[in-house]
């Protein structure tokens, strides 16, 4: 009885256990997810925004092929690079307030951010932490600790992105295996997940889009979407959660801007 009451109290205080969240119990997501004022994702009102010109971001080692693992986290497909001791993946310069290490790439289906209320089929997140923090967990507690690059994707009947093919080919191996990373059959280039030609982006301060929804995250949402074919989209998103239910969509609804500024950045 004691235990049961304690469980109820904890549940009331904290909402759901952070590990137990899903996209069907959004109203029970913990803490700042409910009370924060700088949450993500947001709708980006593209038209009429004034461009700001800045120096270019440098993507260090992004053009190289890297060995990597993929895993089914129970919420998404996550890619981690395993050769960062030799070839650290770092973004720096331009608008960035420091040097940031690539922690992981993962995906959402449909897109989390929207442009003028248009939702795209898919969104890729490249999550980075401040180099001197040493880890994502520590960076989340620091000012300017985390930068997420976000790239939307739309369905194209012919054209796709090489990185999506490589990952799609391996997802079946982790579809029902939670939190057990496996080596990707081939190497991949982080550059593949970024727009090739036009890297203008929208910049704002938001949060992680999954519990605990920690705020203070710098979001760079690229204006140019990447193409993805239906076949890659289908394979890449065919994973199951801890209850063996297929994850049919994995985006959080649009959050209120609450007076935040979104900047439109073009690099020169
Ligand atoms: Zn994400």
Automatic annotation (TrEMBL):
One of its GO terms (molecular function) is zinc ion binding. SUPFAM superfamilies: Carbonic anhydrase. InterPro entries: CA_dom, CA_dom_sf, Carbonic_anhydrase_a-class. Residues 1-18 form the signal peptide. It holds the Pfam family Carb_anhydrase. Belongs to the alpha-carbonic anhydrase family. This is Alpha-carbonic anhydrase domain-containing protein. It comes from Psylliodes chrysocephalus. The lineage of its organism: Eukaryota, Metazoa, Ecdysozoa, Arthropoda, Hexapoda.
């Amino acid at each position: 009885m004691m235990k049961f009451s304690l469980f109820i109290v904890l549940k009331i205080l904290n909402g759901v256990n952070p590990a137990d969240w899903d996209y069907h119990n959004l109203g029970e997501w913990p803490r700042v997810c409910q009370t924060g004022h700088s949450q993500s994702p947001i709708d980006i009102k593209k038209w009429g925004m004034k461009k700001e010109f800045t120096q270019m971001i440098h993507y260090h080692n992004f053009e190289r092929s890297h060995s990597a693992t993929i895993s089914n986290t129970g919420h998404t497909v996550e890619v981690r690079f395993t050769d960062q001791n030799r070839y650290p993946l770092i973004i720096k310069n331009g608008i960035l307030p420091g040097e940031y290490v690539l922690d992981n790439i993962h995906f959402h289906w449909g897109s989390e951010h929207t442009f003028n209320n248009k939702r795209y089929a898919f969104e890729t997140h490249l999550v980075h932490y401040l180099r001197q923090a040493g880890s994502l967990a520590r960076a989340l507690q620091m000012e300017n600790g985390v930068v997420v690059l976000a790239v939307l994707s739309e369905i194209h009947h012919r054209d796709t992105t090489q990185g999506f093919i490589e990952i799609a080919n391996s997802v079946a191996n982790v579809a029902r295996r939670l939190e057990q990373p496996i080596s990707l059959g081939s190497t991949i280039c982080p550059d593949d997940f970024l727009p090739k030609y036009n890297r203008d982006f929208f910049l704002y301060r938001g949060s992680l889009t999954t519990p605990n929804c920690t705020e203070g995250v710098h979001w760079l949402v690229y204006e140019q979407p990447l193409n993805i074919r239906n076949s890659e989209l289908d394979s890449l998103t065919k994973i199951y959660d801890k209850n063996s239910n297929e994850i049919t969509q994995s985006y959080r609804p649009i959050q209120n801007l609450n007076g935040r500024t979104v900047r439109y950045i073009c690099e020169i």
